[in-house]
Structure prediction request, 203 residues.
Amino acid sequence: MLPNSNPFLKLSNAVTGLTFIQEAHGWSGLIIAENPRPTGRLRRLVAAVLNAEDEKSLRNRLSTMLLRAYRDYDTIRIFDAGDVVAKLPLYRGKTDFVDAIAEKPVYATLSRERMLERGSNAVEIRIERRAPLAAPIHAGDRLGQACIFIDNKLIGTTPIVAATDVQESSFWKRLIDTVRLALDAKREHPPAAEATIKSTDDF
Prediction:
Protein backbone atom coordinates (compact mmCIF):
# COMPACT_ATOMS: atom_id res chain seq x y z
CA MET A 1 0.00 0.00 0.00
CA LEU A 2 1.28 3.49 -0.90
CA PRO A 3 1.64 6.12 1.83
CA ASN A 4 -0.87 8.99 1.68
CA SER A 5 0.38 12.54 2.23
CA ASN A 6 -1.33 15.85 1.66
CA PRO A 7 0.83 18.99 1.62
CA PHE A 8 -2.00 20.90 -0.10
CA LEU A 9 -4.32 20.51 2.89
CA LYS A 10 -3.05 23.82 4.35
CA LEU A 11 -4.40 25.57 1.25
CA SER A 12 -7.68 23.70 0.79
CA ASN A 13 -9.48 20.91 2.60
CA ALA A 14 -10.98 19.92 -0.76
CA VAL A 15 -7.77 18.01 -1.52
CA THR A 16 -8.56 14.68 0.05
CA GLY A 17 -5.55 12.65 -0.93
CA LEU A 18 -2.08 12.90 -2.39
CA THR A 19 0.59 10.31 -2.99
CA PHE A 20 4.17 11.23 -3.89
CA ILE A 21 6.58 8.59 -5.14
CA GLN A 22 10.28 9.21 -5.72
CA GLU A 23 11.64 6.97 -8.44
CA ALA A 24 14.86 6.68 -10.40
CA HIS A 25 13.32 8.67 -13.27
CA GLY A 26 11.85 11.45 -11.11
CA TRP A 27 8.88 12.28 -8.91
CA SER A 28 5.36 11.07 -9.61
CA GLY A 29 2.13 12.02 -7.90
CA LEU A 30 -1.62 11.47 -7.91
CA ILE A 31 -3.97 14.03 -6.37
CA ILE A 32 -7.70 13.73 -5.68
CA ALA A 33 -9.77 16.85 -5.04
CA GLU A 34 -13.42 16.95 -3.99
CA ASN A 35 -15.39 20.17 -4.13
CA PRO A 36 -19.12 20.32 -3.26
CA ARG A 37 -21.29 22.19 -5.77
CA PRO A 38 -24.14 24.59 -4.82
CA THR A 39 -26.56 21.92 -6.04
CA GLY A 40 -25.19 19.51 -3.43
CA ARG A 41 -23.47 17.33 -6.03
CA LEU A 42 -19.82 16.56 -5.30
CA ARG A 43 -17.32 17.48 -8.02
CA ARG A 44 -14.26 15.24 -8.11
CA LEU A 45 -11.02 15.96 -9.96
CA VAL A 46 -8.04 13.67 -10.39
CA ALA A 47 -4.63 14.91 -11.55
CA ALA A 48 -1.57 12.76 -12.21
CA VAL A 49 2.01 13.71 -13.04
CA LEU A 50 4.81 11.32 -13.93
CA ASN A 51 8.57 11.85 -13.77
CA ALA A 52 8.76 15.44 -12.51
CA GLU A 53 12.28 16.71 -11.85
CA ASP A 54 11.77 17.19 -8.10
CA GLU A 55 9.08 17.48 -5.44
CA LYS A 56 8.62 21.23 -5.98
CA SER A 57 8.12 20.78 -9.71
CA LEU A 58 5.65 17.99 -9.04
CA ARG A 59 3.57 20.16 -6.70
CA ASN A 60 3.58 23.08 -9.16
CA ARG A 61 2.42 20.92 -12.06
CA LEU A 62 -0.32 19.29 -10.01
CA SER A 63 -1.52 22.69 -8.76
CA THR A 64 -1.59 24.06 -12.32
CA MET A 65 -3.60 21.11 -13.58
CA LEU A 66 -6.23 21.43 -10.83
CA LEU A 67 -6.47 25.20 -11.22
CA ARG A 68 -7.00 24.89 -14.98
CA ALA A 69 -9.61 22.16 -14.49
CA TYR A 70 -11.60 24.26 -11.98
CA ARG A 71 -11.26 27.43 -14.06
CA ASP A 72 -11.71 26.19 -17.63
CA TYR A 73 -13.98 23.14 -17.39
CA ASP A 74 -17.34 22.31 -15.90
CA THR A 75 -19.59 19.28 -15.65
CA ILE A 76 -23.18 19.81 -16.77
CA ARG A 77 -26.29 17.73 -16.32
CA ILE A 78 -27.60 16.40 -19.62
CA PHE A 79 -30.54 14.39 -18.25
CA ASP A 80 -31.98 13.49 -14.89
CA ALA A 81 -33.43 10.05 -14.40
CA GLY A 82 -37.01 10.17 -15.69
CA ASP A 83 -36.50 13.09 -18.08
CA VAL A 84 -38.27 12.69 -21.43
CA VAL A 85 -35.52 12.31 -24.03
CA ALA A 86 -37.65 11.76 -27.14
CA LYS A 87 -41.10 10.91 -28.42
CA LEU A 88 -40.78 7.78 -30.54
CA PRO A 89 -43.27 6.69 -33.21
CA LEU A 90 -45.37 3.68 -32.24
CA TYR A 91 -47.40 1.23 -34.31
CA ARG A 92 -50.61 -0.56 -33.26
CA GLY A 93 -51.02 1.51 -30.11
CA LYS A 94 -53.79 3.68 -28.70
CA THR A 95 -51.32 6.55 -29.16
CA ASP A 96 -49.00 7.12 -32.11
CA PHE A 97 -46.01 7.99 -29.94
CA VAL A 98 -44.42 6.80 -26.72
CA ASP A 99 -42.33 8.93 -24.38
CA ALA A 100 -38.79 7.63 -23.99
CA ILE A 101 -37.18 8.64 -20.70
CA ALA A 102 -33.63 8.50 -19.36
CA GLU A 103 -33.08 5.51 -17.11
CA LYS A 104 -30.37 7.26 -15.06
CA PRO A 105 -28.77 10.71 -14.71
CA VAL A 106 -26.27 11.67 -17.42
CA TYR A 107 -23.47 14.25 -17.09
CA ALA A 108 -20.80 15.57 -19.46
CA THR A 109 -17.67 17.63 -18.89
CA LEU A 110 -16.98 20.48 -21.33
CA SER A 111 -14.75 23.51 -21.52
CA ARG A 112 -16.39 26.78 -20.48
CA GLU A 113 -15.23 28.26 -23.79
CA ARG A 114 -17.17 25.57 -25.65
CA MET A 115 -20.32 26.22 -23.59
CA LEU A 116 -20.14 29.99 -24.13
CA GLU A 117 -19.56 29.52 -27.84
CA ARG A 118 -22.28 26.93 -28.52
CA GLY A 119 -24.70 27.26 -25.60
CA SER A 120 -27.31 24.51 -25.55
CA ASN A 121 -25.92 23.23 -28.87
CA ALA A 122 -22.62 22.26 -27.25
CA VAL A 123 -23.97 18.74 -26.73
CA GLU A 124 -25.77 16.73 -29.42
CA ILE A 125 -28.12 13.90 -28.54
CA ARG A 126 -28.85 11.16 -31.06
CA ILE A 127 -31.35 8.41 -30.41
CA GLU A 128 -30.79 4.82 -31.46
CA ARG A 129 -34.09 2.98 -31.14
CA ARG A 130 -35.68 -0.35 -31.73
CA ALA A 131 -37.49 -0.21 -35.03
CA PRO A 132 -40.29 -0.62 -35.48
CA LEU A 133 -41.87 -0.08 -32.06
CA ALA A 134 -45.26 -1.74 -31.69
CA ALA A 135 -47.80 -1.91 -28.88
CA PRO A 136 -48.25 -3.24 -26.31
CA ILE A 137 -45.48 -1.34 -24.53
CA HIS A 138 -44.97 -1.51 -20.78
CA ALA A 139 -43.47 1.19 -18.59
CA GLY A 140 -39.78 0.46 -18.17
CA ASP A 141 -39.41 -1.46 -21.44
CA ARG A 142 -36.08 -0.62 -23.03
CA LEU A 143 -36.65 1.25 -26.30
CA GLY A 144 -33.07 2.02 -27.30
CA GLN A 145 -30.33 4.33 -26.15
CA ALA A 146 -29.42 8.01 -26.16
CA CYS A 147 -25.97 8.71 -27.61
CA ILE A 148 -24.18 11.85 -26.39
CA PHE A 149 -21.87 13.59 -28.87
CA ILE A 150 -19.46 16.50 -28.41
CA ASP A 151 -17.77 17.84 -31.55
CA ASN A 152 -19.19 14.85 -33.43
CA LYS A 153 -17.42 12.44 -31.08
CA LEU A 154 -19.37 9.90 -29.07
CA ILE A 155 -18.62 10.39 -25.36
CA GLY A 156 -21.23 8.08 -23.85
CA THR A 157 -24.58 6.32 -24.07
CA THR A 158 -27.47 5.76 -21.71
CA PRO A 159 -30.50 3.45 -21.98
CA ILE A 160 -33.92 4.96 -22.68
CA VAL A 161 -37.11 3.25 -21.53
CA ALA A 162 -40.85 3.69 -21.94
CA ALA A 163 -42.37 6.20 -19.53
CA THR A 164 -45.84 4.61 -19.47
CA ASP A 165 -47.83 1.62 -20.63
CA VAL A 166 -49.35 1.86 -24.12
CA GLN A 167 -52.11 -0.62 -24.86
CA GLU A 168 -52.98 -2.05 -28.26
CA SER A 169 -55.42 -0.06 -30.38
CA SER A 170 -58.60 -1.25 -32.08
CA PHE A 171 -58.63 -4.04 -34.64
CA TRP A 172 -58.88 -1.63 -37.58
CA LYS A 173 -56.06 0.57 -36.32
CA ARG A 174 -53.86 -2.49 -35.85
CA LEU A 175 -54.74 -3.67 -39.38
CA ILE A 176 -53.83 -0.29 -40.90
CA ASP A 177 -50.56 -0.20 -38.98
CA THR A 178 -49.73 -3.73 -40.11
CA VAL A 179 -50.03 -2.56 -43.72
CA ARG A 180 -47.88 0.49 -42.92
CA LEU A 181 -45.25 -1.76 -41.38
CA ALA A 182 -45.18 -3.96 -44.47
CA LEU A 183 -44.73 -0.92 -46.72
CA ASP A 184 -42.09 0.62 -44.48
CA ALA A 185 -40.11 -2.62 -44.48
CA LYS A 186 -39.56 -2.14 -48.22
CA ARG A 187 -38.19 1.35 -47.79
CA GLU A 188 -34.85 2.46 -46.47
CA HIS A 189 -34.65 2.44 -42.68
CA PRO A 190 -35.67 5.91 -41.44
CA PRO A 191 -33.02 8.02 -39.66
CA ALA A 192 -32.85 7.75 -35.90
CA ALA A 193 -35.08 10.15 -34.02
CA GLU A 194 -33.35 13.15 -32.53
CA ALA A 195 -33.98 14.69 -29.14
CA THR A 196 -33.41 18.27 -28.07
CA ILE A 197 -31.33 18.78 -24.97
CA LYS A 198 -33.38 20.36 -22.22
CA SER A 199 -32.22 23.60 -20.68
CA THR A 200 -30.48 23.18 -17.35
CA ASP A 201 -29.29 25.41 -14.54
CA ASP A 202 -25.83 23.85 -14.91
CA PHE A 203 -25.06 25.95 -17.99
